[in-house]
Amino acid sequence: MITTDAPTEDPGKSHVHNVALTRRRTLLAGSVLGGAALLLTGCSEDSGPGGSRQEADAAAEARLRGQAARDSAALLAHYDATLAAHPGLGERLRPLRAEVARHAAAFGGASPAPSAPSTAPRAGASAAPSASATASAPASPAVPPDEKQARADLAAAERRTADARAAALVSAPPELARLLASVAAAGAAHAYLLTEDGA
């Protein structure tokens, strides 16, 4: 006579096995959900209003904007000093200066009034800055008496400023990075126009 004990032991073992699996799955699912909740909580603390990460990003953006505005103010002072020293360059320089003033305003800086032809000093006082340059920038650069060299110096200032803005792109947030890239490209174009003899 053949007897098997398997059928009598299976129901109890499978029930214990199923309960163990269910508990394991529940614990596993709970730990996964708990980890996800922790991750979401951490994200919301960083990105919430007044979060330290958000404040740090805002402070970094404000510093970049402030520096870009100061760079534009220095460039405006250079344009004003050059216009004062070489009134004959007015037709060529004023459109470029107006664009630099718009850049300064876009970065949050003051947009000083353009230097008027009537305020430009006569040939004897070639290195003196105009009234608007004195009001808008901390210092005016010395301008060479030679017109071509004065344009070359202004072009070099445009290039330096464009390079500084391109370097700032790395740490700038997306919106400010787009503005910096656009203004840097405009500065490079200005430098080209200033050194082009036929323009």
Automatic annotation (TrEMBL):
Ranges annotated as biased composition (Basic and acidic residues): 54-64, 145-158
Highest taxon listed in the record's lineage: Bacteria
Region named Disordered: 45-64, 108-158
Compositionally biased intervals (Low complexity): 108-140
Xref: InterPro entries: TAT_signal
Descriptive protein name: Lipoprotein
Species per Swiss-Prot/TrEMBL record: Streptomyces rimosus subsp. rimosus
